[in-house]
Specification:
This protein is of the alpha+beta class. Helix content is 27%, strand content 38%. A hairpin with a 2-residue loop joins strand 2 and strand 3. The longest helix is centred in the last third of the chain and has 14 residues.
């Protein structure tokens, strides 16, 4: 099963090419933020990530609630493992 997981933007790596570094569960990875409006992709913002793309911006509470739910469902570790294995 593929899920979009919340991540926090910690750095804009390449603004021209829409690349940001996000943190998910202590793991940092570059993702594409080109699907978001420019004002929706700032450091400390939370986004939903799916296959290396930020799909939408979410607030911090929604990010925390989603991560908690994924942990309860037992899906979180699988998604984090996949996130870790796709680090470039």
């Amino acid at each position: 099963m593929c899920l979009a997981i919340p991540g926090k933007i910690v750095e804009i790596v390449d603004a021209e090419n829409d690349i940001a570094k996000v943190e998910v569960g202590g793991v940092r990875r570059n993702i594409n933020i080109g699907m978001l409006d420019k004002e929706d992709a700032r450091i400390d913002d939370y986004v939903l990530i799916h296959v290396g793309f930020a799909m939408s911006k979410i607030d911090e509470k929604e990010a925390e609630d989603t991560l908690r739910l994924l942990e309860e469902l037992g899906s979180y570790e699988t998604e984090i493992d996949q996130f870790k294995s796709s680090i470039q």
